[in-house]
Each structure stands twice: as structure tokens, then as C-alpha cells.
Amino acid sequence: MSLRTRAPAPETATPETGHAGPPLARGASFRWRGPAAAASFLVLLVGGWHGMALAMDSVLVPGVDQIGAEVLRLVSDPGFYTDLGVTFQRVALGFALAFAVAVFVGIAMGRSPLARRFFEPAVLIGLTVPGLVWALLCVIWFGVALINPVMAVALSSAPALTLSIYQGTRATDAQLLEMAHVYRFSTRDRLRYLWLPSLAPALFGGARLGLSLAWKVIVLVEIFGMSSGVGAAINGEFAAQNVAGVLAWTVLFAVVMAVLEYGLLQGLENRAGRWRKVAAV
Amino acid sequence: MSTAVELRRVGKSFTSTRDRRTEHVFENFSLTVEPGELVALVGASGTGKSTLLHMVAGLERPDTGEVAGAGVDGARRRLGMVFQQPRLLDWLSVRANVEIALRSAGLDPALADAALRDVGLAEYADKYPSVLSGGQRQRVAVARAFAIDPAVVLLDEPFSALDELTGRRLRLLLQDLWTRQSRVGLLVTHSPAEAVLLADRVLVLAGRPARVVREYRVDLPRPRAPEDPELFDLQRRVVADLL
């Protein structure tokens, strides 16, 4: 298996044009049909679940009303926000560490064949080790210290992020790098004005994948080795045999992640891609 | 008088990755550009014109010999370069594209507005390059090259990707900039008309390894008119050399 990819040919400018870009706004009907389709799925899921709960009549499959009551209980408890904040802080620290390492290693791999060969095994091993293994190993190695969840998150998300940045680096326009060399851009300017904007799509793609892995691992780490955070709270509900509580935590965690995805990540992505929209108008 | 750009006994070869054959593009090639001189290099595709420009720009190293001159080598290097494509950072405004070159050259970024005014793009300073036409984008590239007060301006087929009328307008703009302030320049072009209009000297390159097979001195004062019969006669002779 190899990480080598073919870099796409750089775009060439067309004389007296420059309005190439994605097609203009889709029809107004699509604007409503998209959310309506997603809402339909959620209604079907909730309805299907409730139907299954009624049919089975088991404490192992609580009804939507029971899960809803648990959700209300959790959100009115200040401890919920404390646990959420603790988990969020651990993910943020681990992800920041992974991001810094991935930017450095990913760009080095894209620029130097020697660096690619050196780091390739590390990335491949990192991609294939299950998050559960990282969670267990970090609990064993680091115990209950903060470094445990931070390292587990960093180790599980860095390989995917590195691979994404490496591929983005390979696709960076070599002509712009030549221009930066001729005009003697400083290292800081190259990173800020050339590399990061060029890598933005890869960074956001990698961040999404990395974060999705990080959320899964942090919950495992908190279940196995921590006394606070969302994972520890879910473990508490599990120990109390409160299935509705486990599901309520899961639902709320998913909602918070969705808010982060659409509110924060997509907002940043729109901001970074502002110039594309201007070009398309 | 010290030379502005000097290639001393330069050698450059490439090895084909397909059949491992080595092509000697230059062997013991020497060239001198005097201060205030714009030299045009013309020749068939593959003669090594762009390779030569890339060696002066520091994008490629000669295998043997050296490239020297004030503003070309080492820490003193200050080059303005206009490529075939504008090579702008599409995510920065037009002004920011010029500012970053100024800052990199240790100059005041506020000079960007004056540079854009010189190429007729003052009102586009806050736009993104992607909303400009191809000709306007190439004007930004010209503004960037001249804004930094370059020791040498390198022009690598700068207008070949543009349509005839736009290319003509930009050639006249370039001549205007050159007339206002004499600079040292190397122009690589496939267009004999462009070469004789802009350059003080036209060198015809041919062969492998490449050598200068003909040299023309263009002693006509600037600004020159593209329809000038003397230019046209010179152009005809360059074309005859190339055919």
C-alpha cells in the first residue's frame, strides 16, 4: 500500500475570462427540499424507534418519551455542562496537538520524497490501529492525568489529518511556489498566504474526519479511565442500567457535535472560501 | 562598467526519465546583459529559452558555470518576474498580491496603490483576482514585478496566453513603464514582433546545445510604434532566422 498520489495539473488561466467556478445558486425549491428530506429521515427514525419500543415493551428499548424526559433532566442539570466542557477541552487540546503535527508532517511529506518515505509507515500504522486500542493504551500508559485523553485524541486523529494535508500539499500549485521563490516570500508569508489557503479544503476535510475519530476515542478513554466527561457520565448511566440515560447522553452529544460542525467548522470554511463565492457571482 | 546579468560558461542538461537519455540544453553558454538593457531571447520551442530564464531566476541551478550580476545572485537578489500565467494568489485582493511582494522585498506595502495606478488598475485594488479578466490579471502581475524596484525584470512569454488585442495593449503598457524608468530585463518570447518592439537586443537561439545564432541590436528610440517600418523590417529578418 502506498500513499503516493498524482498531483492534479495546475489550472491554467483563460485569456480575458476568469469567471470559471461552480454553477450559480440552485433553485429555490432545492433550498427547502434539502432540509425537508433530512427532517423526514429524523421523523422516520424517531417514529420507527418509538414503534419498536412499543412493540418490544422492554426496559432495554425505552420509548421516545422516556428518552425525552432524560434529555430534559440532563440539560437542566449543571453537571451536564461541566462534563460536556471537560470533554470538549480534552478534544480541543488533543486535536490542536494533532493539527500542529499533521501540518508539519503532511507538508514535509508532500514536499520531500525522503520525508514521505520516512513518515509513510507511521501514517499507515496510525490509520490502521483502532481507536479502542489507542484509548486502552493511553489509559495504561498515562493513567488519569490530562495527558491521557489528549494523547489518545491526538494519536487517533493525527494520521487521517496528516494524510489529508499530504494530499493537499501534492495538489498545491507548483507555479505559485515558484512565484513565491522568485519574490522571496518569508517562511511565515509562505505558510500564511500560500500554504494554508491552498490547503484549506484538505484541512477542513481532514479536520472533519479527525474530529469524528476524536469524539469516538474521547468517549472510550473517559469510559475506561476518567471520572469526568461525557464518557464517564455515559458509563455511570450504564452502571445504573439506565438505557434511556445512555441514549439521552448519546442524542445530546450528537446534537452538540452537529452544532459544532455546522456552526463552527462550516462557518470557518465559508470564511476561508469567501473568495470563491465572489468569483462565482 | 559592471554587467547587470552575466551567465558564465553555463552548462545545463536534463535526463529523460523514460529512456534515460541526457539532453545537453546548454554547454559553455555565456551571455551578458548590460545595465539599462532589455535583451529578448527568441527561438523555436525546446531551445532552452525558459530554462535560461529559470536559471537567472534561481528556479533552476546550472550544472556548470555560474549566473552572476547585481540583484541576481545571493542575498542581494531582487527580481521582478512576469510569467506566462499571472500566478496571483486568488484568495488575496489585488492590492494584497502586490503588497506581499513589496513586503518580501523590504519595501513599504503602501507603494502597492501607486504600482496599480501605473498599470491602470487603481479601482480594482480591493477586488479578488478571479473577478478580473485575463488581461487585467496579467496587468497585476506586471504591477507586482515593477513595484519592488527590481534590479532585473524577467519576462517569460508574458503575453502569449492573451488574445492579440489584449497582448498588444500590454506590450505598449510595458514599453511605457520601460520608457519611464530604464531597467535591466530579459524577455523570452515566441513573437518576433514583441521582441523587436520591446528589446534593445534580440538574440536568436537555436541548436542543442543552444547557442546564439544571430544577434540584432534595436537602436530605435522609445516609445516605438508597432507599425514602424524599420521595426517591421527587423521583425521580418528575425522571422527568416527562425524559419
From TrEMBL, chain A:
<feature type="transmembrane region" description="Helical">
    <location>
        <begin position="190"/>
        <end position="207"/>
    </location>
</feature>
<feature type="region of interest" description="Disordered">
    <location>
        <begin position="1"/>
        <end position="24"/>
    </location>
</feature>
<dbReference type="GO" id="GO:0005886">
    <property type="term" value="C:plasma membrane"/>
</dbReference>
<dbReference type="InterPro" id="IPR035906">
    <property type="entry name" value="MetI-like_sf"/>
</dbReference>
<feature type="transmembrane region" description="Helical">
    <location>
        <begin position="246"/>
        <end position="265"/>
    </location>
</feature>
<feature type="transmembrane region" description="Helical">
    <location>
        <begin position="36"/>
        <end position="56"/>
    </location>
</feature>
<feature type="transmembrane region" description="Helical">
    <location>
        <begin position="91"/>
        <end position="110"/>
    </location>
</feature>
<dbReference type="GO" id="GO:0055085">
    <property type="term" value="P:transmembrane transport"/>
</dbReference>
<comment type="similarity">
    <text>Belongs to the binding-protein-dependent transport system permease family.</text>
</comment>
<feature type="transmembrane region" description="Helical">
    <location>
        <begin position="122"/>
        <end position="144"/>
    </location>
</feature>
<keyword id="KW-0472">Membrane</keyword>
<keyword id="KW-0812">Transmembrane</keyword>
<keyword id="KW-0813">Transport</keyword>
<keyword id="KW-1003">Cell membrane</keyword>
<feature type="domain" description="ABC transmembrane type-1">
    <location>
        <begin position="84"/>
        <end position="264"/>
    </location>
</feature>
<feature type="transmembrane region" description="Helical">
    <location>
        <begin position="213"/>
        <end position="234"/>
    </location>
</feature>
<dbReference type="Pfam" id="PF00528">
    <property type="entry name" value="BPD_transp_1"/>
</dbReference>
<protein>
    <submittedName>
        <fullName>ABC transporter permease subunit</fullName>
    </submittedName>
</protein>
<keyword id="KW-1133">Transmembrane helix</keyword>
<dbReference type="InterPro" id="IPR000515">
    <property type="entry name" value="MetI-like"/>
</dbReference>
From TrEMBL, chain B:
<keyword id="KW-0547">Nucleotide-binding</keyword>
<dbReference type="GO" id="GO:0005524">
    <property type="term" value="F:ATP binding"/>
</dbReference>
<dbReference type="InterPro" id="IPR017871">
    <property type="entry name" value="ABC_transporter-like_CS"/>
</dbReference>
<dbReference type="GO" id="GO:0016887">
    <property type="term" value="F:ATP hydrolysis activity"/>
</dbReference>
<keyword id="KW-0813">Transport</keyword>
<dbReference type="InterPro" id="IPR003439">
    <property type="entry name" value="ABC_transporter-like_ATP-bd"/>
</dbReference>
<dbReference type="InterPro" id="IPR003593">
    <property type="entry name" value="AAA+_ATPase"/>
</dbReference>
<protein>
    <submittedName>
        <fullName>ABC transporter ATP-binding protein</fullName>
    </submittedName>
</protein>
<keyword id="KW-0067">ATP-binding</keyword>
<dbReference type="InterPro" id="IPR050166">
    <property type="entry name" value="ABC_transporter_ATP-bind"/>
</dbReference>
<dbReference type="InterPro" id="IPR027417">
    <property type="entry name" value="P-loop_NTPase"/>
</dbReference>
<dbReference type="Pfam" id="PF00005">
    <property type="entry name" value="ABC_tran"/>
</dbReference>
<feature type="domain" description="ABC transporter">
    <location>
        <begin position="5"/>
        <end position="232"/>
    </location>
</feature>
